[in-house]
Amino acid sequence: MSKHNDTDDQQLKLDFQLPDEKNKKQSGGYTVTLDGKTKPKPKTPPTRNKSAVSTRSMTVKIPGETTHTTSSLTTPKRTAPKKPTVKPAGPKASPPKTKKTNIVRTVEQTDAHLVQSRVKKKAPTRQRVEPPTIGKRRGYRPSVANRLKLPIFFLSLFVCSLAVLGFFRLRSEKDTWSAPPPVRSVIHREMVAIEIESGMTARSVSLLLEQRGVVEDSQQLLAYFVENNQASFLRCGSYLMEENMSFEAIGTLLTTNGELISLTVSPAFTLQSIDEYLSNRIGSEKGEFLQAAEDLRQAYGLSFSEGWFLSGTYLVAKDHAALDLAMQMYEGMLQFLQPRLESEQVSLRSVEQVLIVASLIQAETQNVEEMKLIASVIYNRLDSGEPLGIDATTRYELQDWNKPIPVEALETKTPYNTRRKVGLPPSGICSPSEQALEAALYPQESTYFFYLHGLDKQIHFALDYEEHKKNISEYR
Question: What are phi and psi of 46, to 5 degrees?
């Protein structure tokens, strides 16, 4: 019998000892026993809670076996190992020999259990990025001027709207109409009214003119009268003279008889129409009568001139017809009013208000029989505080007596728009006749508040607005 070989006779025995239940948490290893000889227990790495890539290797040496090295990318959770198969012992039984194979791995075939080395890859080509245009770029902040354009536009629009609204509001509430004033082309100058009575001498006339401021030295004026042989030919009457008037102008005014002409001023003539009448009748300069009326108003301290001139027929000197006619028409009005100042209407109101009412009556009708009832309607509406609603006042303001009145003029509040304004206009609107003055001074008593001239050429009165509307539907 050959020499006994312990190695050959050796039989592989694997005894697995499970860890103690009590020490299960402390020990997770296994004991491998070979022929009763105990090998030291290999140390195992502690379990890591954090999953990470591990490159640790463990070597287990078994007699007669080829050493294998294992590697893992991660440390898996430990589980109970399978029980190895043990071959039965026999004579000269030896473990099979395993041929060691060297595995050559390329870059394409990498070991899944080993940490792969980084392979430098070709960087991908980047696409060219086109920046957005200015103004479209995200986070772009426009200039202050661009940011203020929109607020300034809306602010301008708001201001313009307010301006337009304010303009129309002021236009609707303004006190004067935009039409030209009734009296135009006149110059305001200091005028003096002189009354030369019958029997006054040249000396007394010179002293009177000095006292009224027409001349500075009465002796020089008297000497002028004597030298020019005018002292015995001074005419009595009412005159309008300007302050610091020349001696020549005074002598001509007081001594000239000249040619006398007859002028007839029809009722309802305005100052403007009288001026045109003189221009066409005797060839006087335009605006001459308007200036004479303004001089008279200033000289006598009147509130207005329109309405103070009584219509009628007058004999005037042709050389200074405008001034002579104005004086005679004014004196004719004073002479008519003087004996009628005890009228109730004069005591309740004033002479000027009565003259304005007379001019309204004259503008509304030429029929004498209608005048006193129209005067009654005017006074009833004045006493009740209702607008007069007389369109003739607006026509006078527009200086247009033929064309239809614009709607805008009737809706605009002005001193002469008696549809919107309560009370009388600020002046007369024409030259009244004696009949119109009589009706204004002594109106007929009635309770009428409305009247209209129908297509039948008749006037129709009404007590209230409902009756007035029936008259409109029936006679218009």
Answer: -65, 150
